Each structure stands twice: as structure tokens, then as C-alpha cells.
């Protein structure tokens, strides 16, 4: 599941570079419709939609990216540019103000935008390692990414998925607890947290989080399957 998700994002980036914005939108909508709340996926979808002239849909995607990462500098700037184009100048100025404030901070000695770019580079390298089964190296790179982007909960979720794959269940659980606390509506993270709790011997805790996720997304097949698993008689 995780590899297919990241492959979709990689293919969408390739279509974007080739200026096939319709192709990028198709892939990104397939990705985001599955509930995979990656800030960079929503941002790239917003940029692609804006280049195709779909202004309101683009703004919606930038909003979603900023819900996941309020310090996403590129999303703030792109949102401000579109708002300015459609005459919503006060809102545009607020976006630019937030972007300027984000630019003044520093993380690990780097200006925030530089730290964000480096975090994403580490995350890309982590995915390359994960794709070839080098899980320990992938984990190391994701941890470096999170040192530079501690609020990038989409990257923390990806780290947790690799930790689960590597059998480091307790570490995965710790990361997922943080993600779900910060993003309660992140259904995939909630599903994974329940699995981490279950695998660590906490069946009641798993049931609790899965029931909570199901109340937000009734009929979610994977969550329902997990609940059936934990409720199955021994």
C-alpha cells in the first residue's frame, strides 16, 4: 500500500515536469481520494489545477496542504498569488504575511524554507532506500527529515509505515500517536495506529482507535477489516 502511494506521487511529479498537468491531476486525485493526506500531494495538485485554470479547486487543495503543514511556504505563496489574481487581496496579503513569518524562523540552524527543502530531500532518499528494501537506511533518512521538519506529519506517517515493515512496532506506535494527536482526521494514520497497538499487544487500544476512525469515515473497508480481526473469537 505504501509503495503504491509513493509511486503514484512520483509518477505525478514526472507528469508535472513534462507539463502534462492533466496527467498529474489524474494521478494526484487518485492518490488523495484514498485518504492519503500528504501535504506535498495536495500542494502539487493545487499547482497543477491552477495551471489548468481551475482556481477554486486549486485553492481547496492548498488549504488542505496547509491543514497538514501550516508552515508549508510554497503552499502559502501559491495560495496568495491565486487569491491576488482573483481580487481577494486582503486574504492574499495574509498568506504573504504568514510566508514572511515562516521565513524568519530557523530549524537546526537553517532558515525554515531551507530546512523544509532539506527535509523533503531526506524523505525522497528515504523512499528510495525503502523501495529496495533497505529499511534501516530509510528509517535513518526519515528521522533526519523529521529533525528538519518536526511538524511534517505526512513524513512522520511514512516513517511509521517503514518502522512497522521493519518490525519496530513500539517505535511505529510512538510516531503514529503523535500523528493522530495532531491530525485526528488522518484516517490512514489512525488505521495504522490501531494496527501498531494491536501488534504491541493492546487489543483494546486498537479497537478504540479503529472505532473512532470508523465514526469519522463510516464504511471504511480497511478499518472495518481490522475491527473484524480484533473482534474475531480466539
A few lines on this structure:
The protein has 234 residues and is mainly alpha-helical. 79% of the residues lie in helices and 2% in strands. The protein has a two-stranded antiparallel sheet.
What does this structure look like?
The protein is mostly helical and 234 residues long. It has two domains: 2-104, Serine Threonine Protein Phosphatase 5, Tetratricopeptide repeat (Alpha Horseshoe); 111-231, Tetratricopeptide repeat domain (Serine Threonine Protein Phosphatase 5, Tetratricopeptide repeat). The chain has 13 helices and two strands; from the N terminus they run H-H-H-H-H-H-E-E-H-H-H-H-H-H-H. A two-stranded antiparallel ribbon has the order 1-2. Strand 1 and strand 2 form a beta hairpin. The mean pLDDT is 86.
Number of domains: 2
Count every helix, treating DSSP H or I runs of 4 or more residues as helices: 13
Q: Pairing-aware structural class of the strands and helices?
A: mainly alpha
CATH architecture field of the largest domain: Alpha Horseshoe
| CATH class category of the largest domain | Mainly Alpha
Rough outline: globular
Return residue spans where pLDDT drops below 50 for at least 5 consecutive residues: none
What fraction, in percent, of the residue positions are helical? Answer: over 70%
Average pLDDT confidence is 86
Looking at CATH, which topology of the largest domain would you report?
Answer: Serine Threonine Protein Phosphatase 5, Tetratricopeptide repeat
Radius of gyration: 18 Å
Strand content: under 5%
Give the number of DSSP strands: 2
Q: Numbering strands along the chain, what is their spatial order in the largest sheet?
A: 1-2
Q: CATH homologous superfamily of the largest domain - what is it?
A: Tetratricopeptide repeat domain
Amino acid at each position: 500500500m505504501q509503495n503504491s502511494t509513493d509511486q503514484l506521487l512520483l509518477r505525478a511529479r514526472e507528469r508535472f515536469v513534462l507539463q502534462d498537468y492533466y496527467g498529474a491531476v489524474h494521478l494526484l486525485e487518485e492518490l488523495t481520494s484514498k485518504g492519503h493526506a500528504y501535504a506535498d500531494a495536495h500542494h502539487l495538485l493545487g499547482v497543477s489545477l491552477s495551471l489548468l485554470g481551475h482556481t477554486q479547486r486549486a485553492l481547496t487543495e492548498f488549504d488542505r496542504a496547509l491543514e497538514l503543514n501550516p508552515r508549508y511556504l510554497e503552499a502559502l505563496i501559491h495560495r496568495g498569488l491565486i487569491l491576488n489574481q482573483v481580487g481577494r487581496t486582503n486574504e492574499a496579503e495574509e498568506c504573504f504575511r504568514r510566508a514572511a513569518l515562516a521565513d524568519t524562523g530557523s530549524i537546526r540552524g537553517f532558515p525554515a524554507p531551507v530546512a523544509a527543502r532539506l527535509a523533503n530531500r531526506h524523505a525522497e532518499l528515504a523512499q528510495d532506500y525503502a523501495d529496495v528494501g533497505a529499511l534501516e537506511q530509510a528509517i535513518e533518512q526519515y528521522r533526519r527529515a523529521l529533525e528538519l521538519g518536526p511538524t511534517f506529519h505526512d513524513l512522520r506517517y511514512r516513517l511509521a509505515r517503514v518502522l512497522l515493515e521493519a518490525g519496530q512496532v513500539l517505535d511505529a506506535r510512538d510516531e503514529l500517536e503523535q500523528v493522530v494527536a495532531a491530525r485526528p482526521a488522518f484516517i490512514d494514520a489512525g488505521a495504522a495506529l490501531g494496527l501498531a497497538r494491536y501488534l504491541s499487544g493492546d487489543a483494546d487500544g486498537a479497537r478504540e482507535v479503529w472505532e473512532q476512525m470508523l465514526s469519522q469515515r463510516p464504511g471504511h473497508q480497511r478499518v472495518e477489516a481490522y475491527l473484524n480481526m480484533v473482534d474475531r473469537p480466539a
